[in-house]
Amino acid sequence: MGGVDLLDSLIALYRTKIRSRKWYHKIVFHMMDFTLVNAWLLYRRDCKDCGIPKKEVYSLLKFKAEVASCLCNERKVLKKRGRPSHNVDRDLAEKKRRGSASSVPSTPVRQDHTDHWPVW
Fold it and tell me: Which residues lie in Basic and acidic residues bias regions (predicted)?
């Protein structure tokens, strides 16, 4: 079985079935199936090269479900409910850990009460 025949048969196993009158919807979902099957074939080859047992390698259906769940959870941010707490010490420690946003002049230069404008 050649590469194209294998790809077509694997796409036909779990095709994304969508009924639409728009011709481009069918093309988009076919390309999505195409890329997922190619990604699964690369994943399977990579698992074989790394020596992962066949029992631990995802099947095509499990791989597609895993990709779908990752895409569904992509932009979800868990927001804390309730009133925000104002913990100044924690915020200050976090800011110190991040460091300053830009380089800060030394203390004597900052406190000499002289305007230091750039020279053009």
Answer: 110-120
CA distances from 100 to 51, 64, 114 (A): 46, 44, 23
d(CA 63, CA 68): 9
Local structure of 14: helix, strand or coil: coil
Q: What distance in Å separates the CA atoms of residue 45 and residue 39, rounded to the nearest whole number?
A: 10
Residue where the block lists tokens 């707490």: 85
